[in-house]
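User: I'm preparing a small set of examples for a lab meeting where we compare how different chains pack in three dimensions. I only have the primary sequence for this one, and I'd like the structure in token form so I can line it up with the others. Please keep the answer compact; I'll paste it straight into my notes.
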Amino acid sequence: LYCAAMAMDGVGDLYAAFEQLKKKLAVQGLFDPAHKKPLPKCPGIIGIVTSSAGAAVHDMLRILRKRYPLTKVRLLPVRVQGAEAPGEIAAAIRYANRYKLADLLIVGRGGGSIEDLWAFNDELVAHAIYESEIPVISAVGHEPDVTISDFVADVRASTPSNAAEIAVPDAVELAAQLSGARAHMLQVLRQSLQL
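Assistant: Understood. Below is the structure token output for the 195-residue chain.
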């Protein structure tokens, strides 16, 4: 029997590497809930770290424009798969922090295979998210996809579209709340005047 490589039965190499890195980063405290930052309620500027060519960015922009058109968006285009992707993603997160480019960062990409999403299982990306002073939403893949970025980020979104919904309030709901508050104030004022 000649063997070139060995892996545990039933567990792929990528899954084993994922679990090993997950344990290492957990011990280092990168997943600690005490380190998670709250998201701003009405972010003035949102930075999106993703591919400029993917469908995910277009979905996020459409949802952000519809829900809360007051927010400005800065796209930090990066590769989201391949050997260069982790370095580019981490550099974009650090760049946004160094120059205070946003109130909130969305980091992610659309769905794909575990190999396609692997850049978000990189230690370099994990540390960049952890060190970010700007709150980070991880938005990688589809609902069942889970990456190291999801564990480190301040908030995990199930999809990039979900990240856009989490990032900003709904302007229609805000208008209704303001209208209700105005009506209540007028009612209290009228009662005070009558008294």
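A couple of notes for your slides: The CA atoms of residues 112 and 185 lie 51 Å apart. The helical segments are 13-28, 55-67, 85-98, 123-131, 148-152, 160-167, 171-194.

User: Perfect, thanks.
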